[in-house]
């Protein structure tokens, strides 16, 4: 689940346990955050950081760099990761909700992404996988993504802490580690609920853009979907 909207965090600081973020300006990518938004293939999707550079994707999963001072996005190229199959938060004729999960993050000097898409039934009790979860390594110069392997669905909020990548399995309500060599996940702890019971994002203890994990819309997309009854 995602999305940047048209603006990104340009500068931020940490004060104790509080993260302060300032909006820099428009990325140039299309908005998709309200019922009136012109959602489309170049709508802003998600962002992450590597070595001080901010990267972003759109609904077609093209990769961009983002200027932290102006917010402007510059196209690098297509990742080859599947496009977002439906407007996130839109509803289908059977009452199910379209949701996609994408994390873009740096770890060990490399850029990675996880991506999957699901539908959530009308009673919010079951999911159907539309695009299976996969872990990718992305070439930050060309944008081309290389498949590492399958991974769990509904992962979001990846962050590298002391060489270990942690993420959140939103459907199962679990904190898990993610093996960047094969996509396997291992449960660290339960969040105490499942079925998108938590809205989560994370940052490593050292506040720098390369380690900031921005989860975007996250599980709050479920709340958006109740207000936004758009069919795709």
Would you give an account of this structure?
The chain is mainly beta. It has a single domain, classed as Lipocalin. The protein is 3% helix and 47% strand. The chain is built from one helix and 16 strands. The chain has one helix spanning 221-227; strands at 7-15, 18-26, 44-50, 53-58, 62-66, 73-78, 97-107, 110-120, 127-138, 145-150, 155-161, 164-169, 174-178, 185-190, 202-203, 212-213. A four-stranded antiparallel β-sheet has the order 3-4-5-6, with no helix packed on it. Strands 7-8-9-10 form a four-stranded antiparallel β-sheet. A hairpin with a 2-residue loop joins strand 11 and strand 12. The relative contact order is 0.17. Mean pLDDT is 78; it is low at 1-14, 16-20 and 197-232.
The overall strand count is 16
Average pLDDT rating: 78
At the third CATH level, what is the topology name? Lipocalin
> What is the CATH top level name?
Mainly Beta
Number of helices: 1
Helical residues, percent: under 10%
Q: Would you list the SSEs in sequence order as H and E? A: EEEEEEEEEEEEEEEEH
- Spatial extent as radius of gyration: 16 Å
């Amino acid at each position: 689940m995602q999305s940047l909207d048209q603006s990104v965090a340009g500068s931020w600081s940490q004060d104790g346990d509080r993260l302060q973020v300032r909006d820099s300006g428009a990325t140039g990518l299309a908005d998709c955050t309200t019922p009136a938004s012109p959602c489309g293939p170049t709508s802003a999707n998600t962002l992450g950081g590597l070595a001080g550079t901010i990267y972003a994707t759109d609904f077609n999963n093209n990769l961009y760099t983002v200027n932290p001072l102006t917010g402007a996005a510059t196209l690098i190229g297509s990742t080859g990761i599947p496009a977002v199959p439906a407007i996130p938060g839109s509803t289908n004729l059977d009452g199910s909700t379209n949701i996609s999960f994408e994390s873009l993050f740096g770890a060990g000097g490399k850029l990675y992404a996880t991506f999957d898409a699901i539908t959530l039934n009308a009673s919010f009790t079951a999911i159907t996988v539309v695009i299976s979860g996969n872990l990718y390594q992305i070439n930050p110069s060309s944008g081309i993504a290389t498949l590492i392997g399958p991974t769990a669905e509904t992962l979001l909020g990846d962050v590298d802490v002391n060489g270990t990548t942690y993420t959140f399995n939103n459907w199962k309500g679990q904190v898990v580690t993610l093996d960047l060599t094969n996509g396997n996940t291992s449960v660290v702890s339960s969040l105490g609920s499942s079925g998108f019971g938590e809205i989560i994002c994370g940052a490593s203890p050292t506040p720098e853009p390369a380690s900031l994990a921005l989860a975007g819309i996250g599980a709050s997309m479920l709340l958006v979907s109740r207000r936004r009854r758009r069919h795709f």
